[in-house]
Amino acid sequence: MTTSAKLMQRRQVLTLARHEIGRSLFSRRSLAVYLLVGMPLALMLLRALFMPGSMRADATHATTEFAEVFHFFLLRFVVFFANAMIFVRLFRGEILEKSLHYTLLAPLPRMVLVLGKYLGGVLSASLILMFTTALTYVLVYLPHGSAGIRLMLSSSGIANLASYLLIVALACFAYGALFMLAGLFFKNPMVPAILFLGWETLTPFLPTFLKVLSFVHYLVSFAPVPVSLGAFALLARPVPWWIALVALFVSSAALVFIASRVARNLEVTYSAD
């Protein structure tokens, strides 16, 4: 492939990505995502309003509280389903809107099409979910006044937030690739979402050789504050961060590649949808 052809494909990928960002952030279909990410913010606001005075005086437990909220609600529910809503609709959404045939008629390779949509989805999901995570983090500490703000802005507090944002970004890469591929097979996005959610939820209770098939098993390796997973959770050695990083990127790349192969034979039959 010549240099000019490579440059042309890069421009096509970026153009598709910008188009997907606009669709994911500003279209009517994004309303459900915004309602979903508003849930943790609403809960933290209610917590701040009705927190007893005795708890406000002690800011030290805020770090553990956010870790629990992040692990059991943000990561395993909000981040998971937000990615499902965004990425399953990259192709399925255009089929339902009867607009995918215009994209397929464009003179571009299917790999470029998949990469452009995937990049746009990753950027959109990361922007929404990282902002939600950061704002939730702030709302956890604010009710504790100046002590909470000092703890939040301390070196450890900023480092913890950076780790959580990294987890969210990596989750968008991994879950995004998974749900984009699922969107090429399933008409109803809730079908793959529920199946994958069940598997990710069971991860703490699975033996080690099955944990490696779960994204959340690698994502929690970057968590700065460990949380208790319950008395029945099976113990497993923590995954070194570099192994977790390689596993997430390799699996994401493999899923995107498979999606590009599937997209080669993609044909639009609106009457069937």
Structural commentary:
The protein is mostly helical. The chain has one domain (11-272). Helix content is 75%, strand content 0%. It is built from 12 helices and no strands. The chain has helices at residues 3-26, 31-50, 53-56, 62-96, 100-104, 110-141, 145-153, 155-183, 190-202, 208-211, 215-219, 241-264. Helix 1 (3-26) packs across helix 6 and helix 4 (62-96) packs antiparallel against helix 6. The chain starts with a helix and ends in a 9-residue tail after the last helix.
The structural class is mainly alpha
Q: Ranges with pLDDT <50 over ≥5 residues?
A: none
Amino- and carboxy-terminal Cα gap: 38 Å
Mean pLDDT: 86
DSSP, total strands = 0
Main pleated-sheet profile = none
Tell me the radius of gyration. Answer: 20 Å
Question: Fraction of residues in helices?
Answer: over 70%
* SSE sequence, one letter per element: HHHHHHHHHHHH
Structure characteristics:
mainly alpha; 273 residues
List the helices and strands and how they pair.
Elements: H1 3-26, H2 31-50, H3 53-56, H4 62-96, H5 100-104, H6 110-141, H7 145-153, H8 155-183, H9 190-202, H10 208-211, H11 215-219, H12 241-264
Helix pairs in contact: 1-6, 2-4, 2-6, 4-6, 4-8, 4-9, 6-8, 6-12, 8-12
Quick summary of this structure?
With 273 residues, the chain is mostly helical.
